[in-house]
Amino acid sequence: MRATPPIPASAGTSTPASSDLEARIREYGEKILGLMDAAGPPSLFSKKGFYGSLMEWAMRDEHFKTQLFRFVDVLPSLTSSGEIARHLREYLGDEQLKLSPALRVGLKAAGGASWLLGAGVKSQITGMARQFMLGDDEKEIAATLRKLHEQDIAFTVDILGEAVVSEDEAEQYAARYLALIEGLARQVAQWEPPCQSNISPRGQLPALNVSVKLSALHSQIQPSDPDTAMGKILERLRPLLRRAKELGAFVNFDMESYALKDLTVRSFKTIFSEAEFAEQPACGLALQAYLKDSEADLRGIIAWAREHEHRVCIRLVKGAYWDYETVISQQRHWPVPVFSQKPETDANFERLSVVLLENEDAVDAAFGTHNVRSIAHVLAQADRLGIAPRSFEFQMLYGMADPLKAAVLESGCRLREYCPVGELLPGMAYLVRRLLENTSNEGFLANKFGKGAGREELLRAPRENLAAGERRPIGKDSERSATPSGRVMRFQNEAHTDFRLAAEREKVRTALAGVRRQLGRRYPLIINNDQVSTPEWLPSLNPANQDEVVGHAAQARLAEAEAALAAARSAQPKWGAAPADDRAKLLEHVAELMRRDKATLSALEILEAGKNWPEADADVAEAIDFCNFYAAVMRNLARPERTQAVAGESNFQQWWPRGTGIIIAPWNFPLAILTGMTAAAIVTGNAVIMKPSDQTPVIGARLMELLMEAGLPPGVVNLLTGPGSVVGSHLVAHPQIDFIAFTGSKEVGLKIWEAAGRTAPGQANLKKVVCEMGGKNCVIVDSDADLDEAVAGCIASAFGYQGQKCSALSRLVVLADNYDKFLERLVAAAASLPVGPAEVPGKVLGPVINREAEQRIRGIIEAGKSEARLAWQGAVPDDPKACYVSPAIFTDVPPNSRLFREEIFGPVLAVSKAKDFDEALTLANTSEFALTGGCYSRSPANIERAKAELVCGNLYINRNVTGAIVQRQPFGGFKMSGGGTKAGGVEYLQNFLVPRVVTENVLRRGFAPEEAEW
Ligand SMILES: Cc1cc2nc3c(=O)[nH]c(=O)nc-3n(C[C@H](O)[C@H](O)[C@H](O)COP(=O)(O)OP(=O)(O)OC[C@H]3O[C@@H](n4cnc5c(N)ncnc54)[C@H](O)[C@@H]3O)c2cc1C
Predict the structure, then answer these.
(1) Would you call 169 a catalytic residue per the annotation?
(2) Ligand 1 centre from 369 Cα, in Å?
């Protein structure tokens, strides 16, 4: 292997040492810009006609741009002119329609008739899309490519597609590629003479060149299991590469989002190391300069190419998903993988260009850019290194920057166009990306053609732009928010683990082995921080293997319940009088310990609750959030708050703990909910009896250990495991219990509510019940919904953790226009979910919690067959030791059926059809529950109606309905779903407190102190 030459210090900079280079860049740049100016602006920027004026308007008015592009995005799904006109008005409003010159022309032409306007606009936008895409007619595609060929422009063809949500769709995508290669190979073979852009000093390149997106070859890419994903992708790639090899075609791997980057690079190296593909077909890979780790990737590929003596092509681009990457990483609290400043990306592009050129003996370089400065820099560096300009190629997108293409060709360079083919509907996302790129404030094309920037500015070195510009940091390190009283609070959510990282996956694997070594341990009760054993021990079983005992939990009797209550009552006064800050610190310490043990806690949940890796990890993260968030909220509440300023009198509200309570938690979020309710109760100064679910007592015992390790004083939390019907009922009714925090079924919740309402003789307080019960949650899929998103979101909401979440989707109401297409994709997507034990990474659907649940859900599915049509039932492993239930989707579900009304808490989804949005809302609101709800729609008016009319505690628009994040989405419902309390919200702690107002007359003998003292 040859060593890689170092990059000269001056590369990509404009220091005095590189002034010669800068001068050369200027020279090339001026020349290209001169040639471009002679050619005139590209049609998109011509300022004439429909597109030109739309673009001009969009660049002037950010709001108009957003609305316009959203309209473009929804347009292909609109089937009637009336619908188009309605959406146009909803997005742009009458004012905007009148103001925009292009739309004004459209309105005028339509004579004000909305249906005519609709049809006109659709055909205009379709024409706009055609500027960037070749359509899906094979003959038309071949004809367009041939034209390019005749202009000596090489091409690469990419098939645009919907997001692949099922394995059927992935198969179809692979088949379309195969057909495309076959069809085009026949045509291209007849084109003589060869296109000059395909002739490099090293020889002739394949005339047929295709670009592939790996995400389209497998629908179930799970970050926790990249190996399976790669296996499936390579399986589908092999026939394609085999055919490409036979036909002499070139295959390029496009680069998509950062989440897929490592998988793409690894798949590339793996498959092209296989003996069969070690030499043919010719291949390439795109790398994105906006990524901070792109240089390491580039050097890695070059080293691989040298080692395998496999000459590959690297297409260097800046990267097309900048907004997405910054938004997603900020939402997840992950490091932002892209540079935050545009000139940083430009500078990195220049640095990497040099790396590529310096290694041109090992790899072919392709520069995918429409930026004249970037192109001029490549040419100047090639000069410096003595590399002939035809040794590398420039690549540009079909329909973009035509004058630049002409200038590059005229400058004697090789040029390839990236040509997307396919139907208009799936292509809209691509069109929107191109429109954004053309109008981006930061973009070269918009600066040159839209804003008319001068040559000086356009050719300035990135470093100079960076120095001149303001540094805009992306990603804040803490979230600050105001409480209702206006006080500022600091809190940051715990990041979910990034399982793309091998080290993180290894941690869970090691933790699983560690937890396994401790299986079968006995977990006594804890009263006053002392262990208490009882005669009876209940085994807790792994849902995926009922022979595996995770642990044995002591079963409390009434005597232990009384002892625990006495311990709590005696500890509470001192604990309640302790400074709130001390109590807050205890929770923060617990959060720290949970973070330390994150992988072990996840592993325990995987084995005891049957949660898959990401679900278990999210539960632990939520538990950490509850501790930190309630600590922060308590610090604010602890400061008495003035109710009103009035002269001579001080009026302050303050809070007192309620006293002693019982926490009754469910198994489905075994750590988070138990921690959340307990943390809220104790940080507010109460003492509690903590009763975890019978299904997950070991996790409860682990929480107790962590509380004690953090320094919990004896008696403040007492762990009681045991039968809810005995211990729980006894304590709920106990006169010395002041509050009950319960999360669980409606059946038990209502009993608690009733029992707590009865006042026993000698009872000091009215009991407060914090009660979170179930849901029968509904999502509406509107006729204009983005089906890629709706299918993926509904699958995750209905089948995540086997549907065993109170927030889970269980009723889907789909508008008639979308019904058949949506249902077909939904069923195919459900059928693609990987099923298996939660501990196997990458499995999405596992067994349900226990035998009883399994039998119950199976019974409901059987009975459901006589109520509705069973549209699909999935296969599950035939494992008698595991509690699998075959997931089911029912259609034609009548609103009065059990399937439509009753909470199932399992992987069962009821689908109904609605003729219009009114009917959809009526159906959705036909429920005694009101927990979560959702709506997928791209109609601004219908989204507003959903916001106003859907009856639920947590409403999610255009996203899945599960996975509430502490503080961001305070969680809880009303009606038969609960008492309207919001876990993870700033008001939640008030449920565990009683408010007091202290008024003091500060006027003494007519003398009032300074205002600050009242
Ligand atoms: C032939 C071809 C193939 C392509 N293939 C791919 C591919 O496989 N994968 C892919 O992701 N993209 C691909 N692209 C798109 C490419 O990544 C760019 O989005 C596009 O070409 C714009 O870059 P530019 O150099 O032409 O324009 P410029 O205007 O110079 O650069 C715009 C780019 O700068 C970056 N940027 C914008 N704002 C910021 C900021 N605040 N901080 C940091 N960086 C910022 C973004 O990457 C943005 O696209 C391809 C482009 C071409 C021409």
Answers:
(1) no
(2) 7
